[in-house]
Amino acid sequence: MSGYPYNALKRSTIDFVGFVMFFFGTLFVKVALYDPFMAQETLCKFM
After folding, report:
1. Helices of type H across 1-47
2. Is-contact 43 31, C-beta < 8 A?
3. Residues 22 and 29: beta-carbon distance below 8 Å
4. Is 7 inside any structural domain?
5. How far is CA 2 from CA 9, 15, 24, in A?
6. Does 30 map to a domain?
7. Are residues 31 and 39 in contact, defined by beta-carbon separation less than 8 angstroms?
8. Which of 22, 23, 24, 41 has its CA 20 to 30 A from that of 15?
9. Is 3's pLDDT higher than 70?
10. Which pLDDT belongs to residue 2?
């Protein structure tokens, strides 16, 4: 049972990262639909 808290923490961290990626993904899609040129510029800036 000693490894349980660590595994739970790791899983929640992965869930959190997944949620953040999903949130920014949907946000980016909305921006891309609204203003494709700005989305392209933002993508180039981060790459």
Report:
1. 4-34, 36-46
2. no
3. no
4. no
5. 13, 22, 35
6. yes
7. yes
8. 41
9. no
10. 58
Q: Which among 19, 16, 47 is positioned nearest to 39, based on CA atoms?
A: 47
* pTM exceeds 0.85: no
- Within a domain: 45: yes
The SS3 assignment for 1 reads coil
Sequence-distant (6+) residues with CB within 8 A of 37 are none
Whole-angstrom distance, CA of residue 45 vs CA of residue 47:
6
47 domain residue, yes or no: yes
* Total domains, the chain: 1
Chain length of the chain: 47
Residue given tokens 């923490």 in the structure block: 9
Q: What amino acid is encoded at 47 in this protein?
A: M
